[in-house]
Amino acid sequence: MPRTRSRTRLFRAGVLTAASAMLAGTALAGTAGAAPKPEAKDDVKVLDWLAVKQSDSRPEHARVGADWTIHSHLYTNRKGHPGKKVGDASAHCSVVDVTRKGYVSLCHRVLRTDKGGISLSDTIDHFGPLPHGGYSKVTGGTGKYREAEGQAEITMRHDIARYRIMLDD
Q1: Closest CA to 133 of 155, 117, 161, 118
Q2: DSSP designation for 27
Q3: 10-residue block means of pLDDT along the chain (169 residues)?
Q4: Measured distance CA(112)–CA(132) in Å, rounded
Q5: What value does the CA radius of gyration of the chain take, rounded to a whole number of Å?
């Protein structure tokens, strides 16, 4: 019986992952442990923003299929502290796996500024103490970022998330 529950849980996680990938319109970036650390190149534009959480509907206990939304104010990163406000950030996340160590979430994020928006898609491990984070795929953009391609490094500590976005030119 435990083996059947495990297979069912894995099947549900696979279905949720496939459905979210179809909604995002792209393949997902690998988990933090599997992805090589991106390095900034000369032809890469780097954006360094901090998102300060304003609302979060995350459930108290993670279970496969649980989902939530987060809304934040978006600022420039001034030596690890919020600088000038540049816009807002939203995320819709779902739990795709739960283990003894924690859980894995699948998220679609949109970062909006007056100049345009950037869309991200990722899976993040929430294991152990903070900070949590990983790498996210840039799935598109609008306005100034309409042809955006690249990836972002996300680091989450309490109510602040750092987005270090490397856009390929």
Answers
A1: 155
A2: P
A3: 50 47 38 49 85 96 96 97 98 97 97 97 95 97 95 96 93
A4: 22
A5: 16
For 16, the token pair is: 């949720």
Tokens standing for 35?
């992805």
* Nearest alpha carbon to residue 139 among 113, 115, 120, 125: 120
How does DSSP assign 70-91, residue by residue? EEEEEEEEETTEEEEEEEEEEE
DSSP 24: H
Predicted model pTM: 0.74
Cross-strand bridge partners of residue 56? 70
> What does 93-119 look like in DSSP terms, one character per residue?
EEEEEE-SSEEEEEEEEEEEETTEEEE
DSSP 8-state symbol, 17 = H
Q: How big is the chain, counted in residues?
A: 169
Amino acid at 83: G
Residue with tokens 């534009």: 45
